[in-house]
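My hope is that you will study the protein record below before we discuss the fold together.
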Amino acid sequence: MSKPRTYSGANIEISFDMARCIHARNCFLKLPDVFDPSRRPWVNPDAASADEIAAMVRTCPSGALRYKRLDAVADEAPPKLNRVAVLENGPLAVHGDLTIGGESQTRVTLCRCGKTKNPPHCDYSHVEAGFEATGEPNPEGKEAKLDIGAGLTIAGREDGPLLAKGSMEITTGTGRRIAQAEMAPLCRCGLSSNKPYCDGSHRAGDFKVNETTKRLRNSKRALSCTRRRWRRNGIYLGAGEKGLCLGRKKTAQRRVRPIQPTSVSAVGG
């Protein structure tokens, strides 16, 4: 996945992560002088006041747009109440004091069609897949005592649902309350008959988190661990005083130490 791009102005810095954009178009519709996809660069952080830009960026549901104030004004603060909104034929829009994948965030859209190539985030694949699911599930009447100001942690189960833990209100896309909860298993395979909740259908449907993405993530983690272990044990691949680590390969499992200089007489020349 591409890294977020940064656009710096006099009083505000804007970052944009294309992999997380769901094309809500709030940016262009509200501040076309700042955000114009037909222009290069498409972001001009000096075309409006920093306050106007910050207010607009906070309406970006996916968190693809973020900002950093450069004028001693406070950056974006999370709302006091965590909200999980179920969008019609689309993702879960989550807004709050969030921790996802160990990263603190305030705004994300999470895939529930099962087709994203950037799990757990929505990447607009639901449109191409023709995903259909109501954004107006019936209210449950379940009400847990909300802990105002508390955080919400969301983690994906292996080839299973997203597990949200913490104080939250789950709403329809139009804001009607579905439930208040402290824990919720949220469907991300697109197969549940009880959306937005998981009902175990991922097992019968043999749901897999996007394998290409998962293999890349796991291989990077394994390679990092292997390099650390080799450095600890003084293991190198290749010649030279420091050697060269070539990565984790079947042909590189044996320990190959640096080649030492050898005199001609030592080999019986």
